[in-house]
Amino acid sequence: MNLIKYQAFIKVVEMKSITKAAQAMGYSQPGISHMLDSLEKEVGFPLLIRSKDAIKTTDGGEQLLYYCRQIIKNANDFQETVDAINGLLSGSIHIGAYNSTLLSSVPAIIAKFSRAYSNIKISVQEYSHSDLTQNLMSGSLDLAFMSPPTPNKYEFRPLFHDTYCVIMNREHPLAVHDRIPVKMLNGCDFIMPMDGCDDIVNQIMREHPFTPHITFHTASDAAGIAMAKENLGVYVTSTLQLTKLPDGAIAKEFAEDLYRVIGICLRSFKHASPATKEFIKLAEQTAKNV
Known about the structure:
- By secondary structure, this protein is of the alpha/beta class.
- 42% of the residues lie in helices and 23% in strands.
- The protein has ten helices and eleven strands.
- The strands form two sheets. Strands 3, 4, 5, 6, 7, 8, 9, 10 and 11 form a nine-stranded mixed sheet that branches. It has a two-stranded antiparallel sheet with strand order 1-2.
- The N and C termini lie far apart (46 Å).
- 31% of the residues are buried.
């Protein structure tokens, strides 16, 4: 089995360009085109739709993309296992995480792991909850730092609690309270995260319904916190975001015990590659010491 053809197909889809894929893989553009033609002949149908502006998968190509990724992953896991048996831990780990975890614990875990295992390549991508789920299921991620709900038939191990809080201006009327009951957000000027962002607000609303007066929508915690600082409304986020709390803004936890559980999600802990197992082990040890 010629794995390079599968790698070329994956890289072209990811980069949406044969030229960029060729540069990334160290091949000529005709060389990558030849690999794709060979793979299409092998499977018996077109895999890509090529135009001047973009490249996208055909329906058949989209279906095979997942299995191509699994073929490459299994080959890499095989070699990692051989290396581990021989005492040489190597390989790569593709990680997805929320913005909030990338501002707090995850970089420290990655840095500690990289110092211990310099032969293992780590790649990290920031995603929303829905995109984490999608990329886990597509096979482009080995593991994700996320909170439930997790994809069906995937495994999850909790690491720590991430408490929810309300960000506001120091002079906001709610600032006099030590903790904020959810019911106080009824009718309150409110900065709402846009669809696709961390789903903290909707999680709270499902358990403790309230009706805020939505004044603004934002696509990032940084923007929501900045607007709350200027007294344009309150903003709900998690304590992981408080590392970047600006002067003039304060955070108040809820009177109710509201939090999410952050942990590691992947298809199988038992069948993870040796490199991934070592990373998980270090992440769990680090979380215990926080």
